[in-house]
Amino acid sequence: MRFVLGIAIIALLCGCTSLPQKKVFTSIDFDNLRFLEGRWIGHAPDGSPFYEEYTFVGEREMRSERHSDASYSNSTDGSTVVLEAGQVTSTWNEFTWMALEIVPGKACFVPIKAPSSFCWERKSDTQVHVTQRWADESGNPQEYVVALQRPPLSRHSDSQSDGSDGDVAKQDLIPAHSVTPARSDPGERSEHSAIAADSAAPTVEEFTSHGASIGARIFYPANNAGKARSAVVLFHGGGWNEGDASWMDAIAEQYSQLGMVAVSVGYRLSRDGVTPFDAVADARNAIRWVRRESNRLRVDPNKVAALGTSAGGHLAASTAIFDEPSGSDISSVPNALVLRSPAVSVATSTWFQKLSGGKAQAAALSPDLHVRPGLPPMILLQGELDNVTPAAGARAFCQRMEARGNTCRLELYPSVGHLFTRNLASQEVPDYAAIDREVTKQANEAAIAFLREHGLVADASTPSR
Question: Helix 276-292 crosses helix 311-321 at what angle (to 10 degrees)?
């Protein structure tokens, strides 16, 4: 809103004699401004660069700071946007604006005491347009548009030559909500690793993601001949730095018994320079690989679900939420998602910040900060007393999903923690024997009913485990 005030100041201060009718805004409306959160680079009318940073202070205030250089450490100017008594106002020095419209990806303000109106509009994950409108001395309407870009960051990636997508852009965002992600979720190893002796062995294959070989363990349903089946791609947990695809074998087998092709996949673990950005790229390529190989795997490419546990829940959600450029015309967005004890709010986690490279990088990969309209339906299965991936993060995530017109079902299970354990004193390294089998069964049934509701499960049976 400050870009062309030097031009517009010559105009009449408002250009109108009365203000539009006020609209009453809520905190959910105000939350729609989060597409602005983080750091941006733009260019003033004279071509000089400027550096803008937006941060949230609680749920009712957003601050904007102008910096003199790309270090974002030398603030030269600032403004605020505040929600109070149902009204949203923006203030910069002696100028004041009132919000006329705040919707996902767009916010428009009209002047109370200012020379111009302005709108922020999200064009992509990495670009926002700021449009200012005013009247010149003759009353002729004028308009100026500034494009804000996310600042580039260095990216760790193997060069790609396999048609897979590029790494997720490490957008320099600032963390918002305080939630701790799962550092380790080995509960799967006990709950889900013991397959019955008569279980069918998986078909083991590999696909390439950014030069790395990624393992895939495929469980086919019995009598797999005939029409293409729906599929579910499963992502194990382990705090992004441990685990392998076999951790999800038992769940994969259960879904194969429902008539789905279940594909448990690995991903690059956060060690030796690998970060969660690489794991997200691998997860997206896993969905693409299943679709690309759909004829051979006998899979319906329009019926591919994703299922993830804890850190794997983060990766499953990331396949749908992040919209980075890719070299493929095959979508990585699943048709539905099942997220178990998921790490969907990781911006302020010191563990995730360490793995991803810092606060900005962690926020760039925090699904709750990037929710937008048009996402596939999701179900979150969450222990109410989880202190590894807390229920507050799941609640906030679903609220933002629903506020943007998406389907998000949250199933909260009382008196249990991470991965549905009843040993609340040991959740990060859970007591396997304390995992509540009845709650686990209820969560499984809820997930299957959800997938059936969305046309991905046709078999009426439900696994017992």
Answer: 60
